[in-house]
Design brief:
It is built from 9 helices and 8 strands. By secondary structure, it is an alpha/beta fold. It has a 5-stranded parallel beta sheet with strand order 5-4-6-7-8. The protein has a 3-stranded parallel beta sheet with strand order 1-2-3, with no helix packed on it. 41% of the residues are buried.
C-alpha cells in the first residue's frame, strides 16, 4: 500500500484474475510475482508460494505453506528447498499477451524510486532519443510501450523479465545497491549472467550504445515457460 504503484507487483493484479480466477473464491494467501519471501511475510495459512523470490531480509517461516515453485535457484538455496522448486519468475507467462510493434528504438525503465526522485528524467532522455517507460504507470500502458521497444535498458527487474518474455533484448543497469540478489536469482533461472552497467559511472546513452544486450536462449526460454504453464494447469 502507498501513494504510488510498482509495475512488478501490479503484474499480479493482471495475470492471476485471467489465468486462475478461481483463486479469488478461496481463503488464504497466494504469493507470486515479486520479492516477497522474507521475514515480513505473513504467517497466515493456508498459503501458496507460486514463483515469488527472496532478496530482502531474513528467510520467512514457511511451515505449512504449499511451495509450488520459486523464482530461481538462489531463492531455493536460501529457503533450503530442493532444486526442482527453482523454476523462474511467473511473469514469463506474459509471452503471448501483447503484440509487438517497432515504435521506440530504445526505451529505459527506471526503478519506481528513481523516477519519483527525478521527474525530469524522461524529458532529458527523450532529447537523446531514448523513451522512458515509467513503472508507476498502469500495467497495460507499461506493457504496450515495452512491447513497442526494440531494446530495453532497465533498472527494474521486471522490465528485464517481461522484455525477455517478449523476446526483446535488454540491458541491465543499476543506480542503487541492494537489489543484486533478486537479479542474480532470476538470471540464474534463465542461464544468464548478471552483468549490469553502473549508472554512477556510465550514462544511459553509453548503456544504449555499448552496454551488453541480453536475451535468454530460445530453448531455455521455452523450457521454463512450459514449466510455469504446467504449474498453472496443476493449480487449476
Amino acid at each position: 500500500p502507498g501513494e504510488h504503484t510498482n509495475y512488478g507487483d501490479e503484474l499480479n493484479e493482471v495475470l492471476w484474475p485471467a489465468l486462475l480466477p478461481s483463486l479469488y473464491k478461496k481463503d488464504g494467501v497466494f504469493v507470486a510475482i515479486g520479492t516477497h519471501l522474507d521475514d515480513r511475510l505473513t504467517t497466515e495459512r493456508p498459503m501458496t508460494i507460486f514463483g515469488a523470490g527472496a532478496g530482502y531480509g531474513l528467510p520467512p517461516d514457511l511451515t505449512g505453506a504449499d511451495v509450488r515453485f520459486v523464482r530461481g535457484p538462489k531463492t531455493a538455496q536460501v529457503l533450503d528447498l530442493p532444486e526442482s522448486k527453482a523454476i523462474t519468475d511467473p511473469a514469463i507467462l506474459f509471452h503471448e499477451w501483447y503484440g509487438r510493434h517497432s515504435k521506440h528504438k530504445c526505451s529505459f525503465m527506471p526503478r519506481w524510486t528513481s523516477i519519483l526522485s527525478d521527474p525530469g528524467l524522461p524529458e532529458r532522455l527523450a532529447a537523446g532519443g531514448v523513451f522512458t517507460i515509467d513503472p508507476t504507470w498502469p500495467v497495460d500502458r507499461v506493457m504496450m510501450e515495452l512491447a513497442d521497444s526494440d531494446v530495453l535498458i532497465t533498472e527494474a527487474l521486471h522490465g528485464a523479465v517481461v522484455a525477455d518474455a517478449f523476446r526483446i533484448p535488454w540491458v541491465p543497469v543499476y543506480s542503487e545497491q541492494g537489489h543484486w540478489f533478486k537479479w542474480m536469482d532470476w538470471c540464474a533461472s534463465m542461464d544468464l549472467p548478471y552483468d549490469p552497467v553502473n549508472m554512477s559511472i556510465c550514462s544511459i546513452a553509453w548503456a544504449r550504445d555499448k552496454g551488453k544486450r541480453f536475451l535468454s536462449n530460445e530453448g531455455t526460454f521455452r523450457y521454463r515457460l512450459n514449466q510455469v504453464k504446467h504449474e498453472v494447469e496443476k493449480m487449476r
